[in-house]
Structure formats: structure tokens, C-alpha cells
Amino acid sequence: MTQASSIAAPLAAPAKPGKLSWAWLGVTPFFLFALLFLVLPTAYLLVGSFQTPDGSFTLGNIADLFQPSILSAYWISIKISAASAFFGAVIGFFLAYAAVMGKLPRWIRPTLMTFSGVASNFAGVPLAFAFIATLGRAGLVTILLDKYLGISIYRAGFNLLSFWGLTLTYLYFQIPLMVLILAPALDGLKKEWREASSILGATTWQYWRMVGLPVLWPSLVGTTLLLFANAFGAIATAYALTGSSLNIVPILLYAQIRGDVLHNPNLGYALALGMILITGVSNGIYMVLRTRSERWLR
């Protein structure tokens, strides 16, 4: 046996069967966190959705989800989530493409990624206040446009406390999230594919139509679905921005649980269960598409 093989042999030796690795200790906080803040609350919601306030079994809460007002809330939430996911995906794709493959100065990419990491987590009351201070009726941009350009966005029909106003607000964290997720996928496009297509006489458009976009398609669709789920479950930004003026599911759920006017916690649990199902399906499809995409991008 050579010296190299004698050194490599101990390194390749498998762990002794039955011996518990200390590495499990490092992931224990994750499993504990998931159990306390994901598994148990979901199970509690599931049970509560089929109970009355006194604990009796009922299907009434599920049946109440088909009331016109609740169906309307779901539909508005789906439209806002879909609009912010679509525009966030399109704008985020071109931003990520420009930073990764656009041959821009080298400092652009780390700057964009740093900003995207911060902006993708900037939500809730601070984001709502920032948009009110910027695009509200007395916002800075609103006043500057009216004063120096004579453009009144509110007289033109814009309203921050509306469907498009909330969609625009959501884009602040949707676009950066798209950039963060899609940039590694763009990095995975092999240069050999581009060189081979050029040698075969393909144009840039032909390369993207026949090679680039088909490879990226699972990542694009999957990330768009992730953006949809991300917007569908947002409540703090929507509630701080619009209050109860916009009938979306998270605000309706908050009203049922809090009980200012409405108070039916079990109906709230059913509303939350419906949201979990919708976001769960979106995230599930995203995971499947991401797995397919990673086969090509390895």
C-alpha cells in the first residue's frame, strides 16, 4: 500500500453504525423552531377550522368560506398577489440579467445583491409608512411632481390605498426577492452552451429562445409562484397601508381573530387554512420546478 492510499484509507472509513453524530445537535434548533412555529400552529388551525367556539365538530366554518364577501376577499388577494408576482418576476429578471450577464461595472452586482437582501425583508409598517411619505397625497414625490412638472397623480386616478397602490408597494420587496433567487440560476447557464450555439450560427435571440429560456423556465415559473405565495400571506404592509378599506383575506382574517367588529375565531382558522392551502400549493410547485431546474444548472 502506498503512502497516499494509507493516508486516504482512514478518511474514507465509514462512521461506526449505531453511533449518534454530534452534528444533529446543530440542526436541533431548526427542528424545534419548525415544530413550535410551523407544525403545531398549523395543526391547531386545522383542528380549529372544524370546531365551534365550544369545541364541537362542525363543517360550518368551511361552508362559510363560500360566502360572497369571503370569496371576493380571496379573489382580490389572488389578483394582487398575481399582479405583484408577474411584474416582480419580469422586472426582477431583467435586473438580474443586467447584473449577471450585462457586462456592467463589477461593483454593480454586489451593490444590487446587497440592496436586494435588505429590500426583500423590508415590509410591514415601515414599508407602508415609506410609501405614504413618498406617494401619499402629501408625499414627497407627489408634491414634487405637482410643483415642478404640473402632474397630479391623484387627479389622474392614482390612489395608493387601492389595488394598484398595494401592488406597487408589494413590488418593493418582490423585485429584490426575484433578483436574489434568479441570479444563481443565471450563473448556472454554462458558457459552453452559448459558445456552441454561436459556432452553429445561432443568433442571440435563437440562443435564448431554444437554450437559455427553456433551461431557465422552471426557475422563472417556480420563482414567480414563490412571489405569489409571498404576497398572498402578507398582512402587516396591507393593513398598515389600507386599513380595512381593501377587502383582502389577511385583513379579513385579522378582523375575525381580533374581534373589533367581527369575532369568529374558528372562521378565522378556516380562512387561515384556505391561505395555507393556496400558499402550500404554490410553494410545492416551486420546489418541484426548482428541482427540475437544478438538474440542468449543476
TrEMBL record:
It comes from the Bacteria. PROSITE patterns: ABC_TM1. The keyword Lipid metabolism does not apply. InterPro entries: MetI-like, MetI-like_sf. It is found in: Cell membrane. PANTHER family: INNER MEMBRANE ABC TRANSPORTER PERMEASE PROTEIN YDCU-RELATED, INNER MEMBRANE ABC TRANSPORTER PERMEASE PROTEIN YDCU-RELATED-RELATED. Belongs to the binding-protein-dependent transport system permease family. CysTW subfamily. This is Spermidine/putrescine transport system permease protein.
